[in-house]
Amino acid sequence: MSVLELRRVLGWTQAKLARETLLSERSIRRIEKGLVRPHPGTHWKLMKLANRCSPQVLEDSVRVYTVSVESMERHLGKASNWSHMTRQQRHIFQRWRAYYRRILAEQSAGRCLIMYRNKYKQEKSG
Questions:
Q1: Nearest to 107 by CA among 55, 63, 74
Q2: Predicted TM-score (pTM) of this structure
Q3: What are phi and psi of 12, to 5 degrees?
Q4: 117 pairs with which residues across the strands?
Q5: Residue spans per domain, the chain
Q6: CA torsion angle 103 99 67 6 (round to 10)
Q7: How far apart are the first and last CA of the chain?
Q8: Dihedral angle, C-alpha 21, 109, 60, 55, nearest 10 °
Q9: Which residues in the chain come in under a pLDDT of 70?
């Protein structure tokens, strides 16, 4: 569902949607016109807002994926040690790459949301 469709279903103006999502009206206009794609966090806010205000707005086909940023970067980037991988390791690598490409394509089409998580390492103090 696009931001414009969401706003029309809720019956809100761009100003009200901007206030509710803590975005500027300019950002809402640019997203609706397709000049920019919303940041995943912004997209998530919009979907949460839609679910809270009108639960029937969200389609059943919208899936939520939680992915590791590090893993996604590693699998979508250049495979630097490809020659050192076994056949099985290459196969697993290619499957993960295909998975990440598929969910990115689904997100672009508006059929899913991607929640990113980072692995922050705790530094030992002392």
A1: 63
A2: 0.50
A3: -105, 155
A4: 68
A5: 1-58, 60-120
A6: 10
A7: 50
A8: 20
A9: 1, 53-62, 79-80, 118-126
Yes or no: say if 110 and 43 are a contact pair by the CB < 8 Å rule. no
pLDDT reported for residue 80: 66
Helix (H, G, I), strand (E, B) or coil at 68: strand
Residue 122 token pair = 């705790």
Distance of CA 27 to the CA centre of its chain: 17
Chain segment 14-50, per-residue pLDDT in tens: 999 888 888 899 998 998 888 887 777 787 777 777 7
d(CA 76, CA 97): 6
Q: Label residue 4 exposed, middle or buried (CB < 10 Å: 0-12, 13-18, 19+).
A: middle
- Residue 82 structure tokens: 């490809």
Distances in whole angstroms, Cα of residue 93 to Cα of each of 26, 75, 79, 105: 41, 7, 9, 18
Q: How far apart are CA 2 and CA 74, in angstroms?
A: 30
Please give the single-letter amino acid code of residue 33. Answer: K
Fold entry, domain 1-58: 434 Repressor (Amino-terminal Domain) (1.10.260)
Structure tokens at 69: 């940023």
